[in-house]
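User: Could you go from structure to sequence for me? I need the amino acid at each position, not a summary. C-alpha cells:
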C-alpha cells in the first residue's frame, strides 16, 4: 500500500490538519485521492524508465569514450606532451617560438643594425615625441614634453653619440592649473630658471639581455641643473631615403632614421618634490642631407 493510500484510509477515522478534523469527502480528502490517482502510476512508470535510461547512458559512454580519446590524440586536439613555448618581442611585436635558439635567430634577423648610420643626423622635433606617466592615487597621470632639438652621431670618436634637448616650458598634463604649478614652483621644475632638460650619451651598447630593446645609450640626464647617470633603452627602426623642400621650394634629398625607446626618472633625484618614478617613452626621427 502506498503512502497516499494509507493517508486516504485514515480519513475514515478523521485526520487532524492545522487543529481541525477532516473526514471522507472533505477537500483535503479529495486532494489526497487526486494525488494517489496521479502519483502512483507516475511513480510506477517513471522509476523503472529512469533506471533503464541511466544504464543505457553508462553503456554508451563506456563504448564511445576510448574512440573519442584515440581520435583526439590523432587529430592533435589533445596533447600527451606539453611543448615549451618561448616568446620574444621584435620591434614592438610579440612572436612565439618553439625554442630559445629560434627566438634569438628571429631577433637577430628582425632588428636593424645601428652601425649602418654614418655621419650626423639632426633630430626632427616636429616628427618626434616624448610622453611620461607617473602613478597618482590609483592610476597613472600622463603628460608630454616637446623634443626641442638634438642629434645622433654614432661614428663620433669624441663627444656625445646621442644628444636630446627638451623644452620644459611645453610640459603638459592636460590640466592648466596643475601645469602652472609644476612649471612655476621652485620645488618642482622651476622652468623660469631651468627651461631646458638634456640627455647626452657618449656610449651606445647592445642590450645583453636581448629583451624588448636592442640597444642601451649610457649617458647623463640633466634636469634643473642636476645631472644623473641614466640608461636609455631603445630600438633602431632603420633608415629611408626621402625628399623635403627648402625655403625656396626646391627639393632636397635626405636620409631619415628612426628610434623608439624608454627610460625612467626618479623625481627626487633631480630635486623634484614628487614621490615615485616617472616612466618616459619617446620616438625620434633624425635626418641628414644627402650629398
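Assistant: Here is the amino acid at each position, in order:
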Amino acid at each position: 500500500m502506498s503512502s497516499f493510500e494509507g493517508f486516504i484510509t485514515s480519513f475514515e477515522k478523521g485526520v487532524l490538519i492545522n487543529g481541525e478534523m477532516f473526514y471522507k469527502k472533505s477537500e483535503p480528502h479529495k486532494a489526497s485521492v487526486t494525488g494517489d490517482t496521479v502519483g502512483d502510476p507516475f511513480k510506477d512508470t517513471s522509476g523503472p524508465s529512469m533506471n533503464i535510461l541511466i544504464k543505457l547512458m553508462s553503456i554508451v559512454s563506456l563504448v564511445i569514450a576510448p574512440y573519442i580519446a584515440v581520435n583526439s590524440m590523432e587529430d592533435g586536439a589533445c596533447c600527451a606532451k606539453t611543448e615549451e613555448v618561448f616568446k620574444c618581442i621584435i620591434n614592438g611585436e610579440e612572436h612565439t617560438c618553439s625554442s630559445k635558439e629560434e627566438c634569438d635567430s628571429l631577433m637577430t634577423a628582425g632588428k636593424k643594425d645601428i652601425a649602418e648610420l654614418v655621419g650626423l643626423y639632426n633630430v626632427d622635433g616636429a616628427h618626434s615625441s616624448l610622453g611620461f606617466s607617473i602613478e597618482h592615487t590609483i592610476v597613472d597621470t600622463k603628460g608630454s614634453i616637446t623634443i626641442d632639438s638634438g642629434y645622433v652621431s654614432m661614428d663620433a670618436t669624441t663627444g656625445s653619440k646621442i644628444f636630446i634637448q627638451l623644452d620644459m616650458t611645453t610640459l603638459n598634463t592636460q590640466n592648466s592649473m596643475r601645469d602652472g604649478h609644476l612649471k612655476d614652483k621652485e620645488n618642482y621644475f622651476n622652468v623660469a630658471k631651468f627651461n631646458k632638460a638634456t640627455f647626452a650619451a657618449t656610449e651606445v651598447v647592445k642590450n645583453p639581455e636581448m629583451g624588448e630593446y636592442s640597444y642601451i645609450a649610457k649617458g647623463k640626464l640633466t634636469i634643473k641643473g642636476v645631472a644623473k647617470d641614466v640608461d636609455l633603452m631603445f630600438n633602431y627602426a632603420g633608415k629611408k631615403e626621402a625628399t623635403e623642400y627648402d625655403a625656396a621650394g626646391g627639393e632636397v634629398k635626405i636620409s631619415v632614421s628612426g628610434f623608439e625607446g624608454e627610460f625612467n626618472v626618479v623625481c627626487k633625484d633631480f630635486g623634484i618634490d614628487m614621490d615615485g618614478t616617472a616612466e618616459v617613452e619617446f620616438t625620434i626621427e633624425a635626418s641628414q642631407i644627402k650629398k
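One structural detail worth keeping in mind: Residues 244 and 250 are 8 Å apart (CA to CA).
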